[in-house]
Task: structure prediction
Amino acid sequence: MSSGVRGESSKAAEGRPFLQFTMGSQVYLDHNATTPVDPRVREAMRPYLEGAFGNPSAAHAMGREAKAALEGARETVAELLGTADKDEVVFVSSGTEADNLALAGAALAYQERGRHIITSAVEHSAILETCAALEKWGFSVTYLPVDGEGMLDPEELRRAIQPDTIVISVMHGNNETGVLFPLEEVGAILRERGILFHTDAIQSFGKIPVNVRHLKIDLLSLSAHKIYGPKGVGALYVRRGVRLQPLLQGGGQERGRRAGTENIPGIVGVAEAARLMFLEMPGEQERLRQLRDRLEATILERVDGVRVSGRNSPRLVHTSNFSFDGIEAQTLVAALDLEGIAVSAGSACHVGSVQPSHVLRAMGLSREQVEGSIRFSLGRLTCDGDIDRIVEILPQLVARLREKVPVVK
Result:
């Protein structure tokens, strides 16, 4: 009897519980946009969606039960951040809220020390838009460039520091290219200067180890739906002693840092999703590395006029960003979709947006290269059969589109 998992035997699927989830004939290679909820995560959440629905701020037994679940989840996330304490974890509604609270909350709390912020030109819009808002509020922002491989130069960051610099926010793993920034070097520079260090680890958390003490991180953002947890929940690590100006006012939940009744089912879900990611990390990362490398090598071999952005930098193993000469990315994404293959043209975080990728522009790609770029992001749903199907179909689609669809210049 079929296991419902493409390209794998039922015995293999039994050894990996998540793979009981089925996509039918679909090939899903957009895990950086979102991931399906792991069935094991759903089961962990179920009691708090049904009978154990108490408010964790209530004093009665049902409230205490919810409170125990909340604090247990907080402890789990703290442990996975590497020696963090549970009272340093703040639960929020999303990675975007975590980024906003970290950057705006720190800037407002420390503005008496200065009003200068440093970030990079390739950050997620949750950071860049927050920086734009802070500039309207009288803060100044320096946007650090990256090189042609998407890498940040720590020495350039050092040179950008001013006497009134109060916080620096640079991401861990880029959501479009997978390029990993040198956080250890950045953390060492900032700690010696007494400058707050925030990192958006939404794409990297659960995929590679992150030790906030070792990296000297003061603030770190993460999100559940990138790690097979539910949408609508995230967390922010806040090192003890770091002040934040709350962005939401109300009942003083989360030790006064984020008002609002906590989403207990979602919080239990993010903790269980994170626990499973770290438990399965070594084997899963090697599996995805092999799949990604085969995908890249085969496409580069079979298709002319293609490059992989950031290929020569350290990267997350599940992300590949291809730029095809003579192709309009949205057209290729649509053609792949008709074949049952889900990919994206850059980030999937802008509603209805078809704007060229700011990440690839910052890396120095030409307009035509940027407009011809698509992202493959692999995950637990990805199997050998998916890669086989991609490398069989993609060269034919590219050739056909190059013949029939002119590139708009």
Summary: The longest helix spans residues 264-302. The domain at 40-275 is CATH 3.40.640.10 (Aspartate Aminotransferase; domain 2). The CA atoms of residues 128 and 174 lie 14 Å apart. The longest strand covers residues 319-324.
